């Protein structure tokens, strides 16, 4: 990011007159998106039609024109690597690219956001929102910005404890506010099944009622219907966030074997599971029921998915030898590709067959399989997303005394989430094979929206800045001061956060 102060007194900003005559067509009208961002800060958004932006001096005090303008001449951006003046965006696996650069200019004459693509315009408005101070003023400034990595995401577990569409829309709002582009939903596990599969209705008939601790409250439905999943994707797409569904295979499958006994060797359904242990459930490659099940489930999910990716899991399956594990993962990836999607998988899938463009999500710094599979996968054209548990797993306790979270990867305070380098996170992999960064939050100990958000905030903004900014542009002391200014906005939005002592909160 390049920030050029323009001098003079900060500008009072009570309202903006929105001019979108040169802004193209976003997934939804610009006025609702801009109002969604600015009105919680006390800024009224007025429609300006096609009026020119040159009449800033004619506006009432505290009212500035806000012009959104699509143009190829939006400046080169300040980031190096993926974001330095080249078409960029969420693009792994051959997906359509998007250039996320933007320039934001704030002056007494008005506010102008210029970008080559609509997503850059929205990024510019998001940055404007972050510049607004508590007293409703904004500095005169020119900001030129572009992301370092195209894949900037958040992985959310909705299985261990169920979080429904209303909470997930709030998560999309939070992800979008920090310019994340991917929401990865962990939808299946031992404790439950969270997405309707039309060809396999028993998955949600049984797995949609259970979670950690047992049954969901009476009358509560614990899964997304086909329509709800579509609506969530559309809601996210309007904010330039892509939803990636995960069907975890071949481990983490107790909800599947509980619903369909034919998936087990003896044909007997497994019992429902409400604990938090891992590594005990599995599928069998030589079971004739396995392939039809995978084709039904992954085929239905791919057909429901609007984005280019389907995550097929692949983690924590110690009961399978390499040959059996590879057979199931190869089949899962093949089914996804046949459906026109690009597979995403956890790091363990590097030991299976990997085709160019496959996305591997690195999570376990212990790397018990050794680094050779990662190196081979990178050489085969795999792309890596860095989610190291010791830095990016936001369900880790902040401190040993923190009442929520786990500790298997250590304690992740705010600075731990900020001070690490994605290009060096995946051992045995060159920096240019790293496609991006994803934070992750698992919900074994989280039962409410407030608990969920208190683990995301303030650490998610730290990971988001890490994913956006090159090392030379990051500074912990600057970040801890800036993130403190976001707290009033979080309170206004009703987003709970953990007041870590590493920040001087207002």
From TrEMBL:
Coiled coil (UniProt feature): none
Give the Enzyme Commission number. 3.2.1.52
Q: Where is the Glycoside hydrolase family 20 catalytic domain?
A: 149-319, 328-470
The Beta-hexosaminidase bacterial type N-terminal domain covers 85-146
Keywords, alphabetical: Glycosidase, Hydrolase
User: Pfam family of this protein, just one?
Assistant: Glyco_hydro_20
**What reaction(s) does this enzyme catalyze?**
Hydrolysis of terminal non-reducing N-acetyl-D-hexosamine residues in N-acetyl-beta-D-hexosaminides
Gene Ontology cellular-component terms for this entry are: membrane
Its family remark reads: Belongs to the glycosyl hydrolase 20 family.
Q: Which protein, by its recorded name, is this?
A: beta-N-acetylhexosaminidase
From what organism does this protein derive? Xylanimonas oleitrophica
